[in-house]
Design brief:
heterodimer, A: alpha/beta, 5-stranded mixed sheet, 4 helices, B: mainly alpha, 68% helix
């Protein structure tokens, strides 16, 4: 029983240290807080029941692509965000501060408002 | 204000728990049991009432506030004014508890709390499922106003709009009453469930098997980093594991005190909240309704089946009915279950899926918990030293627990084989969580069957009665022979 107690406590202590060391070294800006900051001005302009399309400059195969889409939805709730640009209004989540105007034009998107930090609200001309 | 709301919810649960099992107003094992049970009862009832309120009166703060205050005051008054009746829950008979074990448990509690706090500071919004599903739904309910039904919009398949609403509802209720969307609410709810599960395991094993067994079980649970981290991630698996444990522990207590039907009623309440927490709760409820009568028929008092089962089913009915109403009226079809029949047949007839699932289930036995040594090996060694010994009066409880856990594992195994198109990814992202759901209940089974370490000690010398015993004798490796008059059942 002593061995069991010691092993359980050692495991717990080891993982606690592990957790602290991982989090103390973490410098990533990715996460909910950074998304909340980037989208906070945009969110204030949204009414409930709004449906938005979504466009990002992440490659589709990028593992963070899905996470960023989900975080955008989480941040902009109660607006509904769909992973398509086939909506009248489209939220753009770019990683550069200067939007890719040519890329937007090629997708028939017209920028309505630039909220900074790569966040734009666009209108789809075809919808 | 947010903490006042969370406290009000917990106090409601405490009032109901104390009304069911009145305890003297002093610190005791009975109080720990009530404190732990209060978390699940309070949150479950408040969550159901919030959702009912939304469907009946819409998102009206006034209505919710009045309803909340009435329920809390009535529950608290009933709890406070409840006269002592029935049995007082106290430590079961067992060997004396060594001081180092008490110290180890205190240390395990402190480290588990530290782990939870560190995780919550670093990730206050929880992990992936928390912000993709549970807290997202809470935001829709709270921010959506008259459009609160957008929570279940099939335009957001990633949020799994068919998932039940215990967790989102309680978070949204506290935000609504406090009129502020504070991230401390989901953290506090997750903390209460994690702490409540540990408290419930320790107190129920303490009542049934004594302090030593309870402390070892509690320490193992609290040292399981998967369990603590899953709580801090703000997933619904933690609450579901609470309700499973609460149901099964209360049924064990029912078997211990067969004339007191309040245990079956309380177990019914807990079981009813399971399908309102996660879809797996339906499987749990089904397994329970099948296993309990079978166990009673085989090992229990057959005359007790009717009253016990009636109490269990009647108490489970309101929350289950609400979960069913949600499924039928609001939720779109589940993405996994609503696959084409031909695809399901193709999945089931693919032998490789059975092998992959079996491999995953076995592997996880060794990986789960995050211990330095695999938990299956740890428990195996512990079993080798103490062995199992099942007394006559424990057979019904153990049969219920083993049948329920067996049916749950079989059901989940079948679901993995039949439903997910990408079985490997599905196993990777969800199997450990499934095991963590069952982990507290599995510990209850293990320590209910295991001999307390003292029972394997050498027989006392013949003149022991005349000599004072300085300290408990050292345990032997093997169990002593069972008494011929009352032969226990050995499961090994």
């Amino acid at each position: 029983m002593i061995a069991l107690a010691a092993l359980a406590l050692a495991s717990s202590f080891w993982l606690l240290l592990d957790l602290i060391s991982v989090y103390s070294q973490s410098t990533s800006t990715f996460g909910v807080a950074s998304f909340e900051d980037r989208f906070s001005d945009f969110r204030k302009t949204l009414a409930p029941h709004t449906v938005l399309g979504y466009l990002s400059d992440n490659p589709v195969t990028d593992p963070s692509s899905q996470a960023e889409f989900n975080l955008t939805q989480y941040t902009l709730a109660p607006a509904i965000v769909k992973p398509t640009i086939d909506e009248h209004l489209v939220v753009v989540n770019y990683h550069s501060a200067t939007p890719d105007a040519a890329g937007l034009r090629a997708r028939h998107l017209i920028s309505l408002r630039d909220f900074g930090h790569g966040v734009l609200l666009c209108r789809n001309e075809t919808r | 204000m947010t903490f006042v709301c969370v406290a009000l919810v917990w106090l409601t649960g405490f009032g109901i728990a104390r009304f069911l099992f009145p305890a003297p107003p002093r610190w005791s094992l009975h109080t720990v049991f009530l404190f732990s049970l209060a978390t699940g009862l309070g949150i479950g009832i408040a969550s159901c009432l919030y959702f009912l309120g939304l469907t009946v009166a819409g998102p009206s703060l006034l209505f919710l506030a009045i309803l909340g205050i009435i329920v809390a005051v009535v529950a608290l008054l009933n709890g406070i004014l409840a006269k002592n009746r029935g049995i007082a829950l106290d430590w079961g008979p067992g060997p004396p508890t060594p001081i180092y074990l008490t110290g180890a448990l205190v240390l395990a509690v402190a480290m588990a709390a530290a782990m939870f706090i560190v995780h919550s500071i670093e990730k206050p919004h929880g992990e992936w499922d928390a912000w993709t599903i549970w807290n997202l739904k809470a935001r829709f309910l709270f921010r959506g106003g008259e459009y609160w039904t957008d929570t279940f919009s099939s335009q957001m398949p990633n949020s799994h709009p068919d998932y039940p609403l215990l967790l989102p509802s309680i978070v949204a209720l506290c935000w609504t009453l406090a009129r502020v969307e504070s991230i401390s609410v989901p953290i506090a709810i997750a903390f209460l469930f994690t702490l409540g599960t540990a408290g419930l395991l320790i107190s129920s094993i303490g009542i049934l098997r004594g302090k030593t067994q309870a402390f070892v079980a509690g320490m193992l649970l609290l040292a399981s980093s998967s369990f603590i981290q899953l709580g801090a991630m703000q997933y619904a698996d933690g609450p579901l594991s609470f309700y499973m444990l609460a149901t099964l522990a209360l049924l064990c207590l029912q078997d211990c005190f067969p004339r007191d039907l309040r245990f079956s009623i309380a177990a019914g309440f807990a079981a009813g909240f399971a399908p309102w927490t996660k879809n797996e709760g339906w499987l749990f409820l089904g397994a329970l309704l099948l296993a309990r009568p079978l166990a009673l028929l085989r090992f229990g008092n057959r005359a007790a089946i009717g009253p016990q089962f009636l109490g269990l089913a009647a108490a489970a009915l309101p929350a289950t009915a609400l979960a069913a109403f949600f499924k039928l009226h609001f939720a779109p079809p589940n993405d996994l279950v609503s696959q084409k029949f031909a695809d399901l047949i193709a999945h089931i007839t693919t032998f490789g899926r059975w092998v992959i699932t079996a491999e995953g289930f076995v592997k996880m036995l060794f990986l789960m918990g995050g211990f330095l040594l695999p938990i299956a090996v740890l428990l195996g060694v512990y079993w080798f030293l103490v062995r199992f010994r099942v007394e006559e009066h424990d057979r019904t409880s153990l049969a219920t627990l083993l049948l329920v856990l067996g049916l749950l594992l079989a059901g989940e195994f079948a679901a993995y084989v039949a439903f997910p198109p990408d079985i490997i990814t599905q196993l990777n992202v969800s199997l450990e969580r499934l095991y963590v759901q069952l982990w507290p209940a599995a510990l209850l089974v293990f320590f209910l069957a295991a001999n307390p370490p003292q029972l394997v000690s050498r027989p006392a010398p013949a003149d022991a009665k005349t000599k004072p015993v300085a300290r408990p004798p050292k345990p032997k490796r093997r169990t002593t022979q069972p008494k011929p008059a009352d032969p226990p059942v050995r499961l090994n």
